Amino acid sequence: MATFLYKVGRSAYLNRWRFIAVWIMLILGAGTAAVSLTQPTSDSFTIPGLESVETEARIGEYFADSEDLVEAPTGTIIMQAPEGSTLADPAISEEVDAFLADLSEIDGLVDTDALVSPVLAAAGLEQQMTAQASTQGLSEEQAAANLEAISPLSADGTTGTVGVTFDADTAMDIAEEDRDAFTAVVDEYSSDDLEIAYSGNAFFVQELSFTSELIGIAVAALVLIITFGSFIAAGLPLLTGVIGVGIGIAGVYAATAFTDNISSMTPTLAMMIGLAVGIDYALFILSRFRNELIHHIGGNDLSPKDLADKLRTIPFTERAHLAGLAVGKAGTAVVFAGTTVIIALVALMIINIPFLSAMALAAAATVAIAVFVAITFLPAVLGAVGTKVFAGRAPVVKAPDPEDEKPTMGLKWVRLIRARPVVFLVGGIIVLALAAAPALNMRLAMPSDGTSAPGTPSRIAYEMTEDAFGAGRNAPMIALVEAGELPEEERGMAFGAATLAIQDTEGVVNAQIIAVSDNGEAAQVLITPEYGANDENAAVVLEDIRANEEPFSQDTGANYSVTGVTPVYEDISERLSEVLLPYVAIIMVLAFLLLVVVFRSLWVPLIAALGFGLSVAATFGITVALWQEGWGGIVSDPQPIISFLPIICIGIVFGLAMDYQVFLVTRMREGWVHGKTAANATSNGFKHGARVVTAAALIMMSVFAAFMLVDEQFIKVIGFALAIAVFLDAFIVRMTIIPATMFLLGERAWKLPKWIDRILPKVDIEGESLTNISNHEAVTEPSA
User: Fold this and answer.
1) Alpha-carbon distance 55 to 62, whole Å?
2) Of 363, 333, 366, which Cα lies nearest the Cα of 345?
3) How far is CA 202 from the centre of its chain?
4) If pLDDT is split at 50, 70 and 90, which confidence band does 783 have?
5) What pLDDT, in 10s, does the model give residues 155-164?
6) For residue 781, pLDDT beyond 50
7) Where, if anywhere, are coiled coils annotated (predicted)?
């Protein structure tokens, strides 16, 4: 592997313009594909095989006019009169009528005849419900309860709702100009005299913004300048990172033409991961190139200016040789590190969740592109820049090389650990264990209007609805009662029995039949729970309703199942919880085997995996404490943790953790292979790797943390969780616990049973095969 990558790196340096031309064509091709093939993304967070999803499909078979509860291009407008007034007051009523009249003029809306005042709609519904109650023999109390559960007007007359439907197949197909026209009318009429908000599928849109990425890149630039002491050198990893992620994102958008499983979050996640690893992988190779240059020149204490001056004296072919060495040595670690990230991401497909599989594949593809950019495009750019790669000296910054005789901060730190390894090992474990404790209270939920940012129209509408109609109005469920196997005369009784069984469930405010199929074999029962969508009790109510189905079926011969946005999201959360441990087991086993091949050791992969377990548990604990429990008031709007955050976080962080393990421990093994004692190899390897791993971790943290500026709760939490995970894993696990354990293990750390050693493939991640390689073995080219 190292020899092959040496040839790739050297060839890229020598044939720089050819390699650059190929990448330019790839960029243009990806951009063209994205522009010509991009289709709207989908936010249908559904999973095949779930009861709620299958129930919704059967509703579509019985009721031809039914809509997808998650993707329908619909929304709800909620209006509220000022304190002391009602929507029936003449002045307010006139304002409502004018507002609805202007809405009906929007070309992008359909069913505009249904845009009527909540006061009139409630009056008409009351007459309809009264007539139905009479024919069905309902009591006045039950009829009143049924009316209250679905009335578009609150009991005090101050708040009303109006449904709105856009002219589109799904919510993601709504034309942006139609949505803008709608919001313009709302903004015009919303005032102190009439507060108006809106929510629903039609308005749940995540727009791709580059503000977060720019902030992350700015911080990364600062770290790189401090690392290299050169503006040009600092800019190269940024250039390669942006190019890699640009191609990856373009590919994601082009893929929307071939699959409906790409959600609006997919490009964001791919950008988040691709940008972080892209910059880091280039950083590792560029740092090794700098190290090879300094070693070749023989000056360990050179300033960035002196290095730039000395670089001019090195012939072009010799620089190509050094670039090949850098790619051959650091590039091998990059390839295996990228492979662990890809394994962790691709393994998400075993969960069989379409939108999550698409996210994983998109992120994995972006990581793969970042690896290829680092080992081919970067050395080509180094060849194009030539002797000016470390020019553009940054003032004040010294950026010493680890070979400098003066002890670096990394060497000072590892010496402290070497003196007291037990203290640092136990101390690190205790800190992470304490941080992990709050994770026991983790509560999962899918994103909804209730988790939107405070002050947004959807969050305002959610809160207005809860205050005026009760929490359950935001979390309705639908039970499909199927009685096709019963005699026709018994079906009505079965529908009624199902309604009563559901109504008697603790936590259900109301249950009523809202539709019967044309063939009379099925009925829909609207269920209004006592709790909102984000309340943990909502899951208990759903479980109890489903538990009552078996005795109902035994008594009547009919059956029912439950669907709705809340049941769908609850089922997704449950499925994700069920597959979490198997997923963790699979990626840990695969990565363990990969690291055994890389390091030819059993202990090193084992402590790497166990250290990851500690860091991810601590990540969940801190995330729950701040974002769910609201400890310290740091987060003003604590919410349940998004359901797929744990599994995404585990997949991503495991890959990144193995990145740091590979880059840090590879230098340790390199020293041990070349004759150093285990302890000295650990210290020397840490000295060489600490600076670049610290820079890489800071870059990843800045990229991830920048996404906390996105105005979506779940993106904020994912950004925070990934940033804190990188911090814990890089600085506590990889740079404290791992060296402490290596010192305690001593020579045993590198022991491997002979029978295993014989069957393992040789990958030469240390670049040992490059030790005696000569620059004169390759065909030369005129110097430049």
Assistant:
1) 11
2) 363
3) 22
4) very low
5) 999 999 999 9
6) no
7) none
Q: Which residue has the tokens 């069989």?
A: 352
Q: Are residues 612 and 506 in the same domain?
A: no
pLDDT band per the 50, 70, 90 thresholds, residue 779: very low
Q: What is the pLDDT of residues 444-456, one digit of tens each?
A: 877 777 777 788 8
Contact 583, 570 (CB under 8 A): no
The SS3 of residue 285 is helix
Looking at the DSSP bridge assignments, the partners of residue 363 are: none
Q: Are residues 156 and 287 in the same domain?
A: no
> Beta strands 477-482 and 559-563: pairing type?
antiparallel
Beta strands in 145-226 (DSSP E): 159-166, 195-199
pLDDT digits (tens, 9 = 90+) for 394-428: 666 665 555 555 667 778 898 999 999 999 999 99
Q: What is the pLDDT of residue 300?
A: 54
Alpha helices in 624-712 (DSSP H): 645-673, 678-706
Residue 743 lies in a domain: yes
Residue 475, domain CATH: 3.30.70.1320
- 317 burial class (0-12, 13-18, 19+ CB within 10 angstroms)? buried
What is the residue-wise DSSP string for 746-767? GGGGG---HHHHHHSPP--TT-
How many domains, in total, are found in the chain?
Answer: 3
- Both 537 and 549 in one domain: the answer is yes
- In this structure, which amino acid lies at residue 218? A
Rounded Cα distance between 502 and 507, Å, is 10
Secondary structure of residue 444 in the 3-state scheme: strand
Query: Residue 204 and residue 164: Cα distance in Å, rounded?
Result: 14
Least Cα distance to 556 among 494, 649, 639 occurs for: 494
H or E element, residue 481: strand 477-482
Which pLDDT tens digit goes with each residue over 7-28?
Answer: 888 999 999 899 999 999 999 9
Residue 156 neighbours by CB distance under 10 Å: 9
368-371 own/partner pairs: CB under 8 Å, 24+ apart: 368/338, 368/342, 369/244, 369/245, 369/247, 369/248, 369/251, 369/274, 369/278, 370/241, 370/244, 370/245, 370/248, 370/274, 370/277, 370/278, 370/281, 370/338, 371/281, 371/334, 371/335, 371/338
538 and 550 within one domain = yes
| Same domain membership, residue 491 and residue 443 | no
| 32 Cβ contact partners less than 8 Å away, ≥ 6 residues apart | none
Which residues are CB-neighbours of 638 under 8 A, at least 6 positions away? 626, 627, 628, 629, 630
Name the residue with higher pLDDT: 591 or 555.
555
Same domain, 705 and 694: yes
C-alpha 410/C-alpha 267 separation (Å) is 36
Q: Are residues 595 and 737 in the same domain?
A: yes
Same domain, 390 and 334: yes
How far apart, in whole angstroms, are the C-alpha atoms of residue 326 and residue 323?
5
Q: State the amino acid at position 477 in one-letter form.
A: M
Q: Nearest 5°: CA angle at 88, between 87 and 92?
A: 55
Quick one: tokens of 479?
């039970």
**Of the residues 544, 567, 590, the one at which a domain ends:** 567
Angle at the Cα of 598 from the Cα atoms of 595 and 603, rounded to 5 degrees:
50
Amino acid at 19: F
Global confidence as pTM: 0.79
What residues contact residue 427 under an 8 Å CB cut-off, 6+ apart? none
Domain holding 558, by residue range, is 65-205+454-567
